[in-house]
Specification:
The structure holds two protein chains of two kinds. Chain A contains twelve helices and eleven strands. Chain A is an alpha/beta fold. The radius of gyration of chain A is 19 Å and the shape is globular. By secondary structure, chain B is mostly beta strands. In chain B, 5% of the residues lie in helices and 34% in strands. Chain B has one helix and eight strands. Chain B has a five-stranded antiparallel sheet, covered by helices on one side. In chain B, strands 2-1-3 form a three-stranded antiparallel sheet. In chain B, a hairpin with a 4-residue loop joins strand 5 (85-92) and strand 6 (97-100). Classes of the chains: A alpha/beta, B mainly beta. The interface between A and B is large, with 37 and 42 residues. Strand 5 (197-200) of chain A pairs antiparallel with strand 4 of chain B, so a sheet runs across the interface.
Chain lengths: 389, 146
């Protein structure tokens, strides 16, 4: 049984996003986001009977987030889980919501994310002892993606300037989004070129900022969606792909071959019954500029190695042939683990985006990418979602 | 007065990886090799990710390798290291890839496919050996040149 268009996103919202917003905890941001999304749908909290929480992976051993958030929201849920696939998670949660609804377990699920970077209850500590990366000095995701960028440059001639074009494109779009963390702070290719190295070949402006904030979406059945105040945004197709290509050379001889990992989006396109040419607007995961390029290749919009020139030619900008990351993306709207990408796709399809609106947008592709890279083997999770109005 | 430096973090082995780290302390580079399909695998695991066999031997690897990719860390993410320093993903002649550091040459001289050989290096002021790689001593030792 295909679940094409059987469920819809009927509510979506983001909290304020920024650096050092110290008035809410991780749980607090998630709760605020749930309230915004539920009210956006025109629902009361008791209309919601499921909750999925996007796992905040780095705040110590804190189990059971989803249960606490649901209880603090005052809902009694029939479906509840904390989900962890790195940056692929927000899309994975809406997929799970749709599957649970169609299984008859529940009828309306809120999928939420929250993140406080400097929690007052958790003292700063040594990063977890990843035995095969920390003693070698590779700490955090940036250095690992720098290894990936180096290899992409070697295999395809991708340049730092092309990475810079990704940063500039996202920033340009963020300057049309008053809620973006980098709103009002335009950058140029020169700014990118002069920003400091974090982990060479990645510079500061190749990296997304630390963001305090949250986001949430409400998923329900297509039948129920029709009776609600918002125009339903249907979930037409979705897919996933997981693995550890960099450390499994006997499966993937070259790093660049992960561009053949179009299977997350292939599954989604097949389910939705549409082609890549039909997509009006894209929200592609972009925690780092190199990740955005990989996403262009992993979604099949570019052949391996063609993503750098594609962006440098302005083809991913508003007004270009494939407008991408129209709210600014993780790079400039803020790092909400990709939850913001789903919210922006919904807003584009509802026609709410004012200056940054893609005209007559009917079909959107959203992708997530979880690079869980300090554990061994470093794994990648791709998730994709096709939405239509 | 000497400048205080935070000690470098050491690996905490798991039940599955302990034989690898124990080998390193004896300066033996032991990698798991599947008894049934012959695959050399890393990281340590109780079963073969190709044929699911649980039969394997900890087998001495050649120590020959080449650079798969590398990065230069400039931001001091943790104060145990002086920046900038390199971290590389190296591909062992036997197939697996692992994270390590290139020693014995300048960061600017590292390149992809550079032939390497294993050495064990003591973590400064601590009783622990980590596997590192240095440029291969003579041409013809890399897997690529065979």
């Amino acid at each position: 049984m295909s679940l094409r268009d059987k469920c819809a996103i009927v509510g979506a919202g983001m909290t304020r996003l920024g650096k050092k917003i110290s008035d809410k905890s991780t749980t607090g941001f998630a709760l605020e986001a749930c309230k915004i999304a539920i009210e956006d749908a025109g629902l009361a909290k008791d209309d919601v009977d499921g909750l999925l929480f996007v796992h905040p992976s780095q705040q110590g051993e804190r189990h059971g987030f989803s249960g606490r958030v649901a209880d603090l929201l005052g809902i009694s849920s029939n479906f509840n889980a904390t989900v962890d696939c790195g940056g692929a998670t927000p899309i994975v949660t809406v997929q799970m919501a749709a599957m649970a609804i169609n299984a008859g377990m529940c009828h309306t699920v809120v999928c939420c994310y929250g993140w406080q970077n400097n929690p007052i209850d958790v003292p700063p500590s040594l990063p977890p002892n990843f035995e095969f990366t920390l003693p070698q000095g590779e700490i955090s995701a940036v250095p690992f993606l720098a290894q990936v960028a180096r290899r992409h440059m070697h295999d395809f001639g991708t340049t730092s300037r092309q990475l810079g074009a990704v940063a500039v494109t996202c920033r340009k779009h963020a300057c049309l989004n008053p809620n973006a963390q980098m709103y009002g702070k335009p950058i140029t290719l020169e700014d990118h070129h002069h920003s400091r190295w974090v982990a060479e070949p990645l510079r500061l402006l190749d990296c997304c900022p630390w963001t305090d904030g949250g986001g949430a979406v409400v998923v329900t059945s297509a039948a129920r969606a029709k009776s609600l105040k918002r125009r339903p945004i249907y979930m037409s197709g979705w897919g996933q792909a997981h693995g550890a290509p960099l450390l499994r050379p006997w499966r993937r001889p070259k790093v660049s071959d992960w561009a053949v990992w179009t299977r997350a989006s292939d599954t989604a396109f097949k389910m939705a019954g549409v082609t890549r040419k039909d997509i009006d607007v894209c929200q592609l995961y972009d925690a780092f500029t190199i990740v955005f390029l990989l996403q262009l290749e992993a979604t099949g919009f570019c052949k391996p190695g063609e993503s750098g020139p594609f962006v440098a030619e302005g083809r991913a900008e508003l007004g270009g042939e494939l407008p991408c990351n129209t709210a600014g993306g993780l790079l400039s709207e803020g790092h909400t683990m990709g939850l913001g990408h789903i919210v922006e796709a919904v807003r584009q399809l509802r026609g709410e985006c004012k200056e940054r609106q893609v005209k007559n947008a009917e079909l959107a592709l959203v992708t997530g990418f979880g690079g869980v890279v300090n554990e061994y083997p470093p794994t990648f999770s791709f998730s994709s979602l096709i939405l239509r109005r | 007065m000497e400048e205080f430096r935070v000690p470098r973090p050491l690996p905490s082995p798991t039940e599955d990886s302990k034989p690898f780290w124990d080998g390193c302390q004896r300066q033996e580079f032991l990698i798991q090799k599947c008894d049934d399909c012959g695959l050399w695998r890393f990281p340590p695991s109780i079963l073969c990710p190709r044929c699911m066999s649980m039969n394997f031997q900890w087998t001495k690897a050649s120590g020959k390798a080449r650079v798969f990719s590398w990065q230069i860390t400039h931001q001091p993410f943790y104060p145990a290291w002086d920046t900038p320093y390199n971290v590389a993903i190296v591909e062992l002649a036997e197939g697996p890839r692992i994270h390590s550091n290139i020693v014995g040459c300048k960061n600017e001289d590292i390149y992809i496919d550079m032939p390497l050989e294993l050495i064990f290096e003591k973590v400064e002021e601590q009783d622990w050996y980590l596997p590192k790689f240095k440029p291969a001593s003579k041409p013809g030792t890399s897997r690529k040149s065979k």
